[in-house]
Amino acid sequence: MKIKKGDTVLITAGDDKNRSGKVIRVLSKKDQLLIEGINLQKKHRRPKKEGEKGQVVEKPGPVSISNVKLICPKCNKPTKKRVCQNCNNSF
Q1: pTM to 2 decimals?
Q2: Of 48, 61, 64, 74, whose CA is between 20 and 30 Å from 28?
Q3: What is the CATH number of the domain that holds 71?
Q4: Where are the beta strands (DSSP E) in the chain?
Q5: Is 44 within a domain?
């Protein structure tokens, strides 16, 4: 798998198209990623103690690896591989 935790990626399809974010987690068996601030899903939490209020918590949902491209840290342009075609930088 080319994409690893901590990489910056660009979304190429879906509602968050042309947005970028940092990879939080890689789900290798499903070929999916969790990306910071992308594909946020709302989850309603019940109050745990009496007198406490419930909450709406947002957490990132999985995005398919086929819908993202790596971003070169040197020139900030999207690439398909770990070697940038524009600046010949390998990362």
Answers
A1: 0.85
A2: 74
A3: 2.30.30.30
A4: 8-11, 20-27, 32-35, 40-45, 55-60, 62-64, 68-71, 78-79
A5: yes
